[in-house]
Amino acid sequence: MVVKIRLARFGRTNSPFYNIVVSHARTARNSRPLEVIGTYDPIPKKDSYDTSGKLHKDIKLDITRARYWIGVGAQPTDTAWRLLSMVGIIEPKFRPSTTTTTEKKA
Fold first, then answer.
1. Fold that domain 3-87 belongs to in CATH
2. What is the distance between the alpha carbons of residues 103 and 20, in angstroms, rounded to a whole number?
3. 39-58: buried (b, 16+ CB within 10 Å) or exposed (e) per residue?
4. How many CA atoms lie within 13 A of 34 on its CB side?
5. Transmembrane residues, as ranges (predicted)?
6. Is the pLDDT of residue 100 over 60?
């Protein structure tokens, strides 16, 4: 059976909060997962330890468990892939360049 790493949404209206979960591919988004490996808060907040005043999105992840599930063949969704690449577990997906080169060859 295919296992996926994906986000399960929690929180209120206009205030989302996500658990990063490992679950079977054919189950509902908010059904009981195999394992919860982290959380993601997409609403930017000020970091109390950062004096620059920049806003940060909060990603908490159990890196060893995420590497384990990737190692045994779990397939992350596109959003989970982006979060895992931000943490440094997997390589970012290739993004095609928006600029095109139209140079003439001599």
1. S16 Ribosomal Protein; Chain: A; (3.30.1320)
2. 45
3. bbbeeeeeeeeeeeeeeeee
4. 16
5. none
6. no
